[in-house]
Amino acid sequence: MADTAGYSAISDLRPLREFVAARALALGLAAPRADLLMLAVNELATNTLQHTTGGGTVRVWADASGLWCDVVDQGAPRAFGRAMPPAEAIGGRGLAIVERICDDVSVFTAAEGTVVRMRLDL
What we know:
By secondary structure, the chain is α+β, with helices and mostly antiparallel strands. It has 3 helices and 5 strands. Keywords: Kinase, Serine/threonine-protein kinase, Transferase. This is Histidine kinase/HSP90-like ATPase domain-containing protein.
């Protein structure tokens, strides 16, 4: 069963990061990997708050294949497989960072919205 936390404002990001780190550690993810997951969730949640309305939800759970985390919002599906932007670029690194620090990333549309699903090996 997944543990869930919602967010709808910038002030929710710190508690969201704390939730993700605590759940990841409790589910057996090593501390350095939990920090990476926290960074990935922060990047996605920040994108939600900048580019959509209504905030989002984060779910965290583990199974035999690893630790899983969904970030769900009402935004359009994101395109993954992107190159890291050049150093002088103003933005555009968030999704590239997420893709590089997680062992698997996928995006799909579900009844509750757009889901970015990440997996990190335990």
